[in-house]
Specification:
The protein has 321 residues and is of the alpha/beta class. The chain is built from six helices and seven strands; from the N terminus they run αβββββββααααα.
């Protein structure tokens, strides 16, 4: 009987057993997939028909989690509470939005996550009275279309109601009267605007243009009249100044005469030597002024148009042409 032991084989078996125990311990200590997941709560204000347990949660088309529970929210019975588990390395923050999305024509739904990349976005924290962080939800595309369709339907109904009121029998009668009166008015306008009326209107416009041109030619003569009137006023003003000076001289002479009477030194010859020439000059100036005024008035009475159209005739000297 051979009792010899093969220690090499025993050593190999021992080493294999130690390696297997090591691998088994490492497998026991390795984190499970569940340990890499984070649970979140999502509250939907709409029906979650088609969303089932284990329905996928996707981010940019990649499956990053699943639905683990569905139920009515204990805070608001109008909302549906959906608990999801999402991989921890998924970029979830306060700008993340969850939307219920339909998977084609199967009738099944999944949750699609979108991130707005806000600058001040922070990781989602657990709020008071909540067991898990809450991802905010947005209406699904079907709900948006439904709401939009409802708005369009309401606007269309309002438009139809207003159109119905506008097209009532009373308004149709009034519209008929307005159209009839408009036709009568257009007919009268056509009868008024015949060819003779058009020709007269053109002739009137031509006369108006001619009158405007004549008025433009008249403007320089008006300026000349204003200039002549200024000179005439200057002459009258000079004449009145001369009369004023003459009267002032007479007043001085009368003062001197009064003083002579009071003092008893009354010398008529000496006094009249100053008064008489002054009075003569004053009377001559007054006579010339009256003659000029009378001549001007008579000339303008004979031909009033001379005020605007009279041109000064320049007297030429001998030999001038």
């Amino acid at each position: 009987m051979n009792n010899r032991v093969n220690y090499v084989v025993i050593g190999i078996l021992v080493l294999i057993g130690i390696a297997g125990m090591t691998l088994f311990g490492f497998w026991l200590l390795k984190p499970t997939k569940e340990a890499q997941m984070q649970r979140y709560a999502i509250y939907f204000n709409e029906s979650v028909l088609g969303l089932n347990l284990d329905a996928p949660v996707k981010y940019k088309g990649l499956s990053v989690g699943k639905v683990v529970d569905l139920g009515i929210s204990r805070h608001n019975q109008e909302q549906v509470e959906v608990l999801v588990e999402i991989l921890k390395d998924t970029p979830i923050n306060t700008s993340t939005e969850a939307q219920l999305t339909s998977q084609g024509i199967t009738g099944l739904s999944y949750i699609n996550l979108t991130i707005n990349n806000e600058i001040d976005a922070k990781p989602i924290a657990v709020k008071e009275r909540e067991d898990y962080p809450v991802i905010k939800s947005v209406p699904s595309i079907l709900i948006k279309l439904e709401n939009r369709f409802i708005d369009i339907s309401e606007d269309l109904a309002d438009t139809l109601q207003k159109t119905s009121r506008l097209l009532s029998d009373k308004n149709q009668e009034e519209m008929g009267v307005i159209l009839n009166n408009t036709a009568i008015l257009i007919s009268k306008i056509n009868s008024i605007l015949d060819e003779n009326t058009t020709q007269n209107f053109k002739l009137t416009m031509a006369n108006l243009k001619e009158s405007s041109e004549k008025f433009n030619l008249l403007i320089p003569r008006v300026d000349e009249l204003v200039s002549k009137s200024g000179k005439f006023e200057d002459n009258i003003s000079a004449a009145f100044d001369s009369i004023k000076n003459s009267y002032l001289g007479i007043q001085d002479s009368m003062n001197t005469f009064n003083k002579a009477l009071e003092s008893g030194e009354f010398n008529v010859k000496e006094i009249t030597s100053d008064v008489v020439p002054t009075m003569n000059n004053t009377l001559l100036d007054m006579q010339n002024l009256i003659l000029k005024i009378e001549e001007t008035i008579n000339r303008y009475e004979r031909s009033p148009a001379d005020i605007m159209f009279m041109q000064e005739e320049i007297k030429k000297g001998p030999g001038e042409k």
